[in-house]
Write a structure and sequence with these properties.
Blueprint (H helix, E strand, L loop, with lengths): L1 H40 L2 H6 L1 H9 L8 H22 L15 H36 L10 H32 L13
């Protein structure tokens, strides 16, 4: 039952991260297209062909989306943390198993549990530091350069996803330790890249 809840939570975050990433891709495409059309309107090539067409293109106000890189920066940080729970739950992190194939099964289970606990500790540390960073940005009222939205909003979005990643990583660490001690499989099989 707890595994089902963690699976649903991780999948929800992955879907949400995917939607945000899709919007960011769309925003980037619109901004690049606008920048390209603006450049074309100011180009010697178009003015040589038709000054009226160049003036009409420029008059539309076409151009890059203002603050696009600020929005992409904030959104990408959220998506990274949004994809982390599903990756963690399904052991999607890349591993290098040069010698693991010759180790006894109990040693491999121990190493899986050990590294899961270490990764959990790192995710908790990053979540804590995101919280501290968000508090600092709130206290100083820092805003982005172009669109002037408060920087702490991006921290808050990332923090919300990092909290979910922390919950899933705590579950995964506890499950992997239990798997080592009991010998039973309590988490989904590994789907990560092995090299």
């Amino acid at each position: 039952m707890l595994l089902t809840f963690m699976e649903r939570l991780a999948r929800f975050m992955a879907i949400l991260g995917g939607l945000v990433l899709t919007l960011l891709i769309g925003l980037t495409c619109v901004s690049v297209l606008g920048r390209g059309l603006n450049t074309l309107g100011h180009s010697d090539f178009l003015t040589a062909i038709s000054q009226a067409a160049a003036d009409a293109l420029i008059a539309t106000g076409v151009g890059p989306v203002s603050g696009d890189f600020e929005l992409v920066e904030a959104g990408i940080s959220f998506t990274i943390f949004a994809f982390l729970p599903i990756c963690q739950l399904h052991r999607g992190h890349a591993t290098v198993d040069i010698f693991a194939s010759v180790f006894p099964r109990w040693l491999n289970r121990f190493l899986e549990a050990f590294w899961e606990v270490v990764l959990c500790a790192l995710i908790l540390l990053i979540t804590w530091r995101l919280y501290v960073g968000m508090e600092d940005k709130m206290r100083y009222g820092e805003t982005t350069f172009l669109i002037q939205f408060p920087v702490w909003w991006a921290y808050a979005l990332s923090l919300s996803a990092a909290v979910i990643a922390s919950i899933v990583s705590i579950y995964c660490a506890a499950a992997r330790v239990s798997e080592f001690l009991s010998g039973k499989t309590l988490t989904p099989e590994a789907e990560g890249g092995h090299h």
